[in-house]
Write a structure and sequence with these properties.
Layout: E1 6-11, H1 16-31, E2 39-45, E3 67-72, H2 82-87, E4 93-98, H3 105-114, E5 125-130, H4 138-151, E6 157-159, H5 167-177, H6 180-183, E7 191-199, H7 208-233, H8 242-255, E8 264-269, E9 287-292, E10 304-309, E11 316-323, E12 329-331, E13 334-336, E14 342-348, E15 352-360, E16 368-376, H9 388-398, H10 407-426, E17 431-433, H11 441-449
Parallel strand pairs: 1-2, 1-4, 2-3, 4-5, 5-6, 7-10, 8-17
Antiparallel strand pairs: 7-11, 8-9, 9-10, 11-14, 12-13, 14-15, 15-16
Helix pairs in contact: 1-9, 3-4, 4-10, 7-8, 7-10, 8-10
The structure holds 6-O-phosphono-beta-D-glucopyranose.
Length: 465
Amino acid sequence: MEGVGTDLVIFGASGDLASRKILPAVARLAERGLLPSRLRVIGAGRSEQPEHIWAPLQTSSRGSNIETRWVRLAYGEPDSYRELRETLGGSATVIYYLATPPSTFIPIVTSLAATGLANSEGGPKRRIVVEKPLGNDLASAREIDHRLREAFGEEQVFRIDHYLAKDTVQNTLAFRFSNAVFEAMWNRTLIESIQVNVAEEVTIGSRAGYYDQVGAVRDMVQNHVLQLLALILMEPPRTLDAANIRRAKLDALLAINPIDPSVAVRGQYEGYLDEPGVALDSRRETYAAARLTVDNWRWYGVPIYFRTGKALPRRVTQAIIRFRDAPLLRLDSQPQRGIPTLLVIHVQPKEGVTLRIGAKRPGARFEMVAAGMDLEYSRLTREELPEAYEHVLSEVLAGGHTVFPSGEEIERSWEIVDPLIRSWELGGHPETYRKGSWGPEEARELMIRTQGGRWINPGDEPGIS
Ligand code: BG6
């Protein structure tokens, strides 16, 4: 008999991610009328159903009408999956969402496979969504992916990187590939350097249990930073469908050289060691910066810098593309430097694209002034921009893979960060930085000694807000 309806099974439904991101996104999709008509949300966990667990759904009137269930099971014990199996009996589509730590992925996936709840053949459509970080290093990521692929087909697997689902990140594709004018200058001939900044004002808060095991490289660089860069560096895909975008991103990632620890900086904010739950002598980094190089024709010799950290002065994510200077600008008889042309892709909190150019200062004299040509993304719509998790969920519900990296991309990203992780694990200490500063002094020096210019902070560059 054909099943009906869709079941969203959330493992780890009582956790932080479910209450802050997943369930509110379900509620907003409900509000916008974008959910399948018969959706059940099922929490799965070892305990009794925790109190108030569905409260985030109740923030919207349509969300509070969604049917919810709770099933008890122990992740690694297939025998305990009977209740889940019975509950899922008649559904047409089943989505397993693993909002749990990476150490639980293999036990859950193995149990689903052992109880016949993984394969889609002849049964309901089954999909599995896994959260980052997928693994702890290259070897463990390979192991998890291998086990995932033993139980599920590649088209059933959705690996989350919520940065890919941010509208402004997706706009990078539209910007690059619908404007021939930029694509023509998108290479080593005209671009001098690229800088990606992913700064957060927050500290680790109550997340020490997770963060002190992980650190900035695994938490942000292996995934968000490299995915954003892959979209900037990749060749034009043959079409903008998921398979071709993934192939083009993988190619770009394969061309990025593994990080050289001698051009990287590890930082830890002052007071990190006093955070509740952090190991007394923790050497975990809360800040990471490095220079990357890319071995392909388009980018050879163009230095690419990134930095990311917690406890920085503000939340800002942007990619800054610096074009080569005009060869010379003669004002009066004195040769002068022009104003560097910058293209800024603002991901958040500002959303849009700015092209910063040199212009003539109005008035009788011929003087230069920096001016920004601004695309403010929110002006393109009257609706509120969707949150990344709404986009993630609606793609999973529709079975599309555009905003999900492939297993090969994830593996390659681990290869890129692995030398850094290993070298930092071997010894040494992070440089400390003041909370609310832009990171350790060594990061500024990294720029100077590698001739990268300087880090661009919000408000630093005239013409860019
Ligand atoms: C998550 C990281 O993937 O991204 C967090 O685990 C980080 O440490 C968060 O705070 C940042 O996401 P956003 O969308 O707020 O920039």
